[in-house]
């Protein structure tokens, strides 16, 4: 039998026993020899389905060909054409559901490890100080970008390439959105996020930190002072189950928990000012990427036992395969087919445990996953010192309440047309603010699409 494509080159990783004590990257990344060998697995198939399934239509085949020829600089420049942050997407994209999942090699072995190839060339370019060179023909029109997550980043980069004067407003004291405050450093090292953001400054994006639109600056002021606006404010308001005891001390939303750990560096207390109380036994409710991140952070904060409490089974988990795999290797315990009914606390107001009901799986629901159904009178309790709720999120009300003129649906998600125009002329939106929560690459794609619509609007007066 012919071994087409061969076996995937193994990614070297920090050993489990070491990595659960630190926040350093789990994968070491390929070296030059490994990356070339992995690229040479690509059979250069004619229709390159990997590209069709990439939300930003990265020219993956051409990029891989250059890597296989050891032309790393050329490979990097190809990636940069369609993706302003390849070092980030290479690490966090759900490749198994996109490019790698449809690679013909995935039928018999693993698809080409496209994510790790992309991360390699971006890291290589960073070490060599190589960036994309382009000429900007300056224009006088001013565009405001609200939010510095992936949607805002890609929109700002493309707007600068068109020549517009771009000011980015960010509520927090560091730029990057979820890349900075949500995804932990062991998955996405922060020096990489900082480097990718430094590129924005280099091409002339004016980044205004600590500026909450709707609080320090009114939305109406932006409308008066800018020729167009892009809203990339994400979906940072956490959802709660709404059960008794959620107000107890020691119960966190995943957003608060991860912001304290990642942005405020609670793991380095007292070197950094923000403390976090993380007990010996931690329960994380939910099983998506956010839940895996919270669980693996809790482990690194010295919790003795960390449970994922999930109403379906790990097979239905929406998290990336790699994250579930890493969580299991690190000793995170999956408690499947259970759903919380009540948090238990002591007289001092601290959480001491949780009451859960057993579930069974029923018919498929709208998400295509089996619906969890409660088994009557099946409640039982579990002792826990800390509970983290990772149930999803919605757009923040603060901005929405201050801009009632913007059309939104009942969940606070902004309504846009196919060109990402909101109901207001010259105001566009993308990313989690219009999806309610999706992925980095989808947010990037929408940022780019909005930049094109803004360019069309400003150059031809198109739009609403
Ligand atoms: P965000 O990244 O949320 O950025 C929005 C920015 O706007 C924030 O910086 C916010 O502070 C700012 N902002 C909000 N309101 C205002 C205001 N009024 N004024 C000024 N600034 C404002 N996706 C993946 O593809 N892979 C993963 O592995 C993955 N893991 C994740 C892990 C976690 C913990 C979380 C929370 C999400 C994860 N996601 C993942 C989802 C992904 O990160 C998001 O879909 C993506 O970041 C959305 O980008 P965005 O630019 O729309 O919003
Ligand atoms: Fe190469 Fe797989 Fe893409 Fe085909 S689908 S071009 S084999 S990476």
List the helices and strands and how they pair.
Elements: H1 16-19, H2 32-39, H3 49-52, H4 60-68, H5 72-82, H6 86-92, H7 99-102, H8 114-128, E1 142-146, H9 150-162, E2 165-169, H10 178-181, H11 190-202, E3 206-208, H12 219-225, E4 228-231, E5 237-238, E6 251-253, H13 254-263, E7 281-285, H14 289-300, E8 305-309, H15 321-329, E9 333-335, E10 338-345, E11 351-364, E12 370-374, E13 380-383, E14 386-389, E15 393-394, H16 397-401, E16 427-429, H17 432-435, H18 440-460
Parallel strand pairs: 1-2, 1-4, 2-3, 4-16, 6-14, 7-8, 7-14, 8-9
Antiparallel strand pairs: 5-15, 10-11, 11-12, 11-13
Helix pairs in contact: 2-4, 4-5, 4-8, 5-8, 6-8, 9-18, 13-14
Iron/sulfur cluster binds next to helix 3 and helix 4.
């Amino acid at each position: 039998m012919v071994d087409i494509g061969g076996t995937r080159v193994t990614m070297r990783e920090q050993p489990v026993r070491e990595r659960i004590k630190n926040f350093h990257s789990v994968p070491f990344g390929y070296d030059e020899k490994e990356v070339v060998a992995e690229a040479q697995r690509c059979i250069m198939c004619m229709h390159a389905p990997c590209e069709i399934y990439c939300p930003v239509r990265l020219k993956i085949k051409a990029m891989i060909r250059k890597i296989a020829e050891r032309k790393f600089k050329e490979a990097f420049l190809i990636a940069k054409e369609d993706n302003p942050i390849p070092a980030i997407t290479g690490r966090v994209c759900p490749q198994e559901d996109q490019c790698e999942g449809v690679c013909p090699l995935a039928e018999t072995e693993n698809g080409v490890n496209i994510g790790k190839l992309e991360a390699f060339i971006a890291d290589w370019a960073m070490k060599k100080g190589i960036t994309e060179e382009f000429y900007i023909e300056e224009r006088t029109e001013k565009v405001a970008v609200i939010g510095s997550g992936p949607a805002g980043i890609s929109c700002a980069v493309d707007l600068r390439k068109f020549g517009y004067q771009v000011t980015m407003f960010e509520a927090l004291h560091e730029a990057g959105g979820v890349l900075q405050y949500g995804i932990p450093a062991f998955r996405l090292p922060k020096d990489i996020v900082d480097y990718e953001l430094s590129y924005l400054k280099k091409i002339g994006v004016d980044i205004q930190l600590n500026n909450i639109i709707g609080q320090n600056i009114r939305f109406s002021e932006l409308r008066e002072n800018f020729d167009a606006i892009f809203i990339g404010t994400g979906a940072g308001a956490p959802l709660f189950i709404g059960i008794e005891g959620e107000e107890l001390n020691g119960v966190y939303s995943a957003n608060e928990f991860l912001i304290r750990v990642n942005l405020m560096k609670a793991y380095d207390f007292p070197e950094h000012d923000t403390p976090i109380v993380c007990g010996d036994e931690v329960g994380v409710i939910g099983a998506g990427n956010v839940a895996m991140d919270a669980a693996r952070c809790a482990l690194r904060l010295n919790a003795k036992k960390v449970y994922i409490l999930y109403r379906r089974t790990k097979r239905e988990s929406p998290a990336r395969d790699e994250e579930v795999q890493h969580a299991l290797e690190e000793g995170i315990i999956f408690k499947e087919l259970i759903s919380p009914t009540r948090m238990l606390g002591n007289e001092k107001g601290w959480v001491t445990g949780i009451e859960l009901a057993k579930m069974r799986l029923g018919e498929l629901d709208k998400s295509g996953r089996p619906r969890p159904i409660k088994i009557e009178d099946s409640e039982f309790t579990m002792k826990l010192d800390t509970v983290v709720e990772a149930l999803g999120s919605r757009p923040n009300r603060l901005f929405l309440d201050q801009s009632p003129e913007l059309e939104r649906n009942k969940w606070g998600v902004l309504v846009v047309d196919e060109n990402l125009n909101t109901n207001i002329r010259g105001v566009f939106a993308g990313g989690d603010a219009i999806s309610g929560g999706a992925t980095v690459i989808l947010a990037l794609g929408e940022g780019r699409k909005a930049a094109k619509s803004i360019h069309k609007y400003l150059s031809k007066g198109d739009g609403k």
